[in-house]
Amino acid sequence: MPDYAVLAVFIPTFFFVSITPGMCMTLAMTLGMSIGVRKTLWMMLGELVGVALVAIAAVLGVASIMLNYPQVFDLLKWVGGAYLVYIGINMWRAKGKMAVIDNAQVNTRRASLISQGFITAIANPKGWAFMISLLPPFINVDNPVGPQLGVLLGIIMITESVSMLAYASGGKSLRLFLSRGDNIRWMNRIAGSLMMLVGVWLALD
After folding, report:
1. What is the Cα–Cα distance from 106 to 175, expressed in whole angstroms?
2. Mind spelling out the 3-state secondary structure of 141-188?
3. Its domain of life (predicted)?
4. Residue 199 exposed, middle or buried by CB count within 10 Å (0-12, 13-18, 19+)
5. 132-174: pLDDT as tens digits
6. What contacts 24+ positions apart, CB below 8 Å, involve 44-47?
7. How many whole angstroms separate alpha carbon 78 and alpha carbon 191?
8. Nearest-CA neighbor of 132 among 66, 187, 177?
9. What pLDDT is recorded for position 47?
10. What is the pTM assigned to this prediction?
11. How many CB atoms lie within 10 A of CB 28?
12. CA distances from 177 to 29, 37, 152, 163, 171 (A)
């Protein structure tokens, strides 16, 4: 499994990135308010499966490059680090508006809710770019990749679940909190700062 120093960096970074309002979190909150938390759990299930698939594909793909083309990976480290810094800067500059999701016609069937969450997770190109850039730095190819991926994936699943549940159950109170003052902007800035630090660490490691 990853060492404690790696986990000490990964856990807060992914937590603040996950809890920052985005499409999945806004979708969880909107569905929680419109159809209830219990039914929203089915959407969360689909989203978690989608996030897990994206994370596994990202790590295995980059790990393969690390093992077979170490020179390419050196370049990839710099590119990935620069991209994380770029994301961090954009999060700092974000105006703090929540994503708008139209759920006027919500299909409450379980299969539909699961597919909605799954598609939201895997059809987002920013999600793929984020996972490809963020996860591989925390994998040490000198050790078995499977156990490390399992631990990181477990952290991702727990963090995503807690974040979506908070948004789904928070409802109107959470929406009011996020719309008040610069609350979203400060959440973006905390997550953006962590992203920039990880980007610099990746490039210099």
Report:
1. 19
2. CCCCHHHHHHHHHHHHHHHHHHHHHHHHHHHHHHHHHHHCCCHHHHHH
3. Bacteria
4. buried
5. 777 777 777 677 878 888 888 899 999 999 989 988 887 666 6
6. 44/117, 44/161, 44/164, 44/165, 44/168, 45/114, 45/117, 46/113, 46/114, 46/115, 46/116, 46/117, 46/118, 46/119, 46/120, 46/121, 47/117, 47/118, 47/120, 47/121, 47/160, 47/164
7. 20
8. 66
9. 92
10. 0.70
11. 28
12. 13, 19, 30, 15, 10
Q: What is the largest CA-CA distance in the chain?
A: 51
- The residue whose two tokens read 């961090």 is 88
Convert the pLDDT of each residue in 15-55 to its tens digit. Answer: 877 877 677 777 788 788 778 888 899 999 999 999 999 88
The 10s digit of each residue's pLDDT in 44-75 is: 999 999 999 988 888 777 667 666 776 666 67
The set of long-range contacts for 16-20, using a CB threshold of 8 Å and a minimum separation of 24, is 16/187, 16/190, 16/191, 16/194, 17/130, 17/134, 17/191, 17/194, 17/195, 18/156, 18/159, 18/160, 18/163, 19/159, 19/163, 19/166, 19/187, 19/191, 20/91, 20/184, 20/187, 20/188, 20/191
Token pair belonging to 85: 């810094």
Closest listed residue to residue 21, CA positions, set 130, 175, 196, 181: 175
The two three-digit tokens of residue 64, written as one number: 């393969």
Helices (DSSP H) in 123-144: which residue ranges?
Answer: 125-134
Q: Which amino acid, residue 170?
A: G
